[in-house]
Amino acid sequence: MITSEIAKDRAARLVELALRAGADAAEAVVSGSASETVGVRLGQLEDIERSEDEHAGVRVFIGRRSASTGGSDFSTAGLAEMAERAVAMARHATEDPYAMLVPREQLARGPFPDLDLVDPTESAPEALRERALETEDAARAVSGVTNSNGASAGCGNSVSALATSEGFAEAYGATSHFLSASMIAGEGGRMQRDYESKSARHRGDLPDCAAVGRTAGERAVARLDPVSMASGTFQVVFDPRVGGSLVGHLIGAMSGMSAARRSTFLLDRLDDAIFPAAIRLVEEPHRPRALRSRPFDGEGLATGPRVLVEGGRVTGWLANLASASQLGIAPTGHAVRGGMGAPGIATANVDLQPGALSPAQLIGEIADGVYVTELIGQGVKGVTGDYSRAAAGFRIRDGELAEAVAEFTIAGNLVAMFGALSAANDLERDRAINVPTLRVDGMTIAGG
Fold first, then answer.
1. What is residue 338's predicted lDDT score, i.e. its pLDDT?
2. How far out from the chain centre does Cα 386 lie?
3. pLDDT tier at 76, thresholds 50, 70, 90
4. What is the end-to-end Cα distance of the chain in Å, rounded?
5. Would you indicate the residue range of the signal peptide (predicted)?
């Protein structure tokens, strides 16, 4: 796979070729990735997958007209053709007053912080196979597990580079390691499935294989013999596996692109106390070894820590250059790139800070409620905040988890849900969005 230096040189070369082809300005992204995954099932090797990919994309500007192309031919002729094609397309594009590059004086400058995203440890296929087998063996050893959907172990590495005609040319690399298992409990019509998966930049930061497997098996067994829920208004507790989706909906609503289109339920609410004062949401793009750490954003702006929710209020929009221009604010360093085209908007390493109560104490205050471990479907309206998702989990009775429940729907409105939110103290930072156990009071349940 290409190195960071090679990726950076290719991106800078593509920008140079675009300017030679007649562009007034240009930016290029180059990415490369390689991964290997070994899967086992019932103690036997099931598959080995190896993939490699390299891609380049260029966006060119002729006045306020812009166009993008991409490809994977890195020869001089291939890059030149890519640049010339983009310039030809831009000449016929409509003008966009918000199509522009970050000015030279605003670009991020090194030295950048060492984010420790690259693990030099290599994992041979045989080592991956052994880890997958150990994970599955632990899962199958759980009493009540009757079958396996399989377990897998994998690793990968990637590199991302960005160059612009304003003088930016930087790249960084990252590695990844993961373990997963999916187990089946029960027989026939009683069968239930559940899983566990963990990812990390460094292999040493993954939990023990046996722990991952046991969790997958225990979750599947716990779901046996679910009953239906009665309809009504209940206190709902979200397991951290699914609670992060609530923060994900908020981040989507904070997007400057959504605000510019007036398609977010946060319009005219930035000054409102939407959350309880104790809720605090923070972003840390420079956290070492974290899954979404990055030294600069997809437009060459510096990244840095930010408080997203404080004192009950959302602190502002998350903006790339185009949406910032539309909203009349400064860009916030949240631009992200795909293989080609204009940048989107995304956060990096978001944590909802832990509260004072343990999960047991948070649940212990509930006489009759539900603990949600799975959410199904996409029933969320970004414009209004109306929320309706199919779910499964466990009944809460007299402050304790009770029988498994399934085939019910939880509904509410995100603004009201955020206002009734409380957090436990069990935050673990192992995802892109990390939350502790969360409780929302007063949600509507539609049972079967």
1. 86
2. 22
3. very high
4. 52
5. none
Instruction: Name residue 217's amino acid.
Output: G
Residues 6 or more apart in contact with residue 279 via CB below 8 angstroms? 309, 312, 352, 353, 418, 421, 423
pLDDT tens figures, 352-409: 999 999 999 999 999 999 999 999 988 899 999 999 999 999 999 999 999 999 999 9
Burial tier of 375 (Cβ tally within 10 Å: 0-12, 13-18, 19+): buried
pLDDT tens, residue by residue, 334-360: 999 988 889 999 999 999 999 999 999
> CA-CA distance, 300 to 284, in Å (whole number)?
17
What percent of the chain has pLDDT above 70?
Answer: 100
Rounded CA-CA distance 408/106 in Å is 51
Q: What angle do CA 237, 239, 242 make, to 5 degrees?
A: 110
What mean pLDDT is predicted for residues 267-296? 97
The pTM for the full model equals: 0.95
C-alpha closest to that of 202 among 307, 86, 107, 287: 287
> 1 and 124 in contact (C-beta within 8 Å)?
no
Q: How far is CA 123 from CA 36, 167, 175, 179, 180, in A?
A: 9, 38, 11, 13, 16
Contacts of 406 (CB under 8 A, 6+ apart): 223, 226, 227, 228, 392
pLDDT digits (tens, 9 = 90+) for 116-127: 999 998 889 999
**In angstroms, what CA-CA distances link 260 with 268, 301, 308, 329?**
12, 20, 19, 11
31 CB contacts (<8 Å, ≥6 apart)? 7, 53, 54, 55, 56, 158, 159, 160, 161, 339
Domains and CATH numbers, the chain: 4-35+49-106 (3.30.2290.10), 125-159+169-222 (3.30.2290.10), 226-448 (no CATH)
- Of 349, 341, 342, 337, which is closest to residue 326 (Cα–Cα)? 342
